[in-house]
Amino acid sequence: MTAAVDPKLLEILVCPLTKTKLTYDREKNELISRTAGLAYPILNGIPIMLIDEARIVDEEKAQKYRHMLLPQQFENKEINASSSKAGKKQKGTDE
Fold first, then answer.
1. DSSP letters spanning 11-28
2. Are the C-beta atoms of residues 40 and 49 closer than 8 Å to each other?
3. pTM of the predicted model, to two decimals?
4. Which of 7, 51, 55, 82 has the greatest number of CB atoms lying within 10 Å of its CB?
5. Which domains does the chain have, with CATH numbers?
6. Which residues lie across from 48 on neighbouring strands?
7. Cα(33)–Cα(20) distance, integer angstroms
8. What is the per-residue pLDDT across 13-30, written as a single tens digit (0 to 9) for each?
9. 3-state secondary structure of 24
10. Is 46 helix (H, G, I), strand (E, B) or coil?
């Protein structure tokens, strides 16, 4: 059995990436950011509001924020390739 999340806490939490309202998925024990397409896990009643701990639930929406997400969060290799190329171009101009 998982610990319940304080309803008052759920009212004030927002997505750390988009600053938008979250939806509580009781079945999966996650907080969903529909705007960012991410799900933040809840462990022992404590929401883990770290972007790198979030699970992508909507790749199309998450692509918009890919520059702020870890490459391994994406399953689609094309997304990783395009962000890697952008990173290499930036490194090349900085040197």
1. HH-B-TTT--B-EEETTT
2. yes
3. 0.70
4. 51
5. 7-94 (2.20.25.10)
6. none
7. 7
8. 999 999 999 999 999 999
9. strand
10. strand
- Interatomic CA distance for residues 68 and 22, integer angstroms: 18
Distances (CA, A) of 21 to 15, 34, 84: 7, 8, 30
Place of tokens 């960012």: 36
User: Residue type for 71, please?
Assistant: P
9 close to 28: Cβ distance less than 8 angstroms: no
Closest by Cα among 5, 11, 22, 9 to 57:
22
Residues forming a β-bridge with 31: 24, 40
**Cα dist from 34 to 4, 81, 89, whole Å:** 22, 25, 31
